[in-house]
Amino acid sequence: MYTVYVIRSSTRDWYYVGQSNNLPRRLEQHNRGYNRSTKAYRPFELVFTEEFATRDHARKREKELKSTMGKRYIRNYYTEQHQG
């Protein structure tokens, strides 16, 4: 099983979209600074996940979420979940 995930920086208004077959390990790597592209934005909170049976399907969805429309979707989703 592959998971497409979105994490949000707790210190800045910044989101990262990725995919993994081991989400807990991957989140730990992000929060420990093992990923160069996310290191400066630590710590993170998990804000969105979707599961897929194959890596190809997960990769396709990851690319969709990294597009301009996908980024809008993520921001709207996060805002809707945290209103109130």
The class by helix and strand makeup works out as alpha+beta
* Run of helices and strands: EEHEHH
Counted by DSSP, the helix tally is: 3
Per CATH, the class reads Alpha Beta
* Regions with little confidence, pLDDT below 50 for 5+ residues: none
**Beta-strand fraction estimate:** 25-35%
Biggest β-sheet: count, sense, barrel? 3 strands, antiparallel
Stated plainly, the CATH topology is called GIY-YIG endonuclease
Distance between the termini: 34 Å
Strand order of the largest sheet: 2-1-3
The helicity comes to 40-55%
**How many domains, as an integer?**
1
Short structural description:
The chain is of the alpha+beta class and 84 residues long. Helix content is 43%, strand content 27%.
Describe it for me?
The chain is an alpha+beta fold. The protein has one domain: GIY-YIG endonuclease (3-Layer(aba) Sandwich). It contains 3 helices and 3 strands; from the N terminus they run E-E-H-E-H-H. It is globular, with a radius of gyration of 12 Å.
Per-chain topology:
Elements: E1 2-9, E2 15-20, H1 23-32, E3 44-52, H2 55-66, H3 68-81
Antiparallel strand pairs: 1-2, 1-3
Helix pairs in contact: 2-3
Describe this protein with a few key phrases:
globular, three-stranded antiparallel β-sheet, alpha+beta, 84 residues, GIY-YIG endonuclease
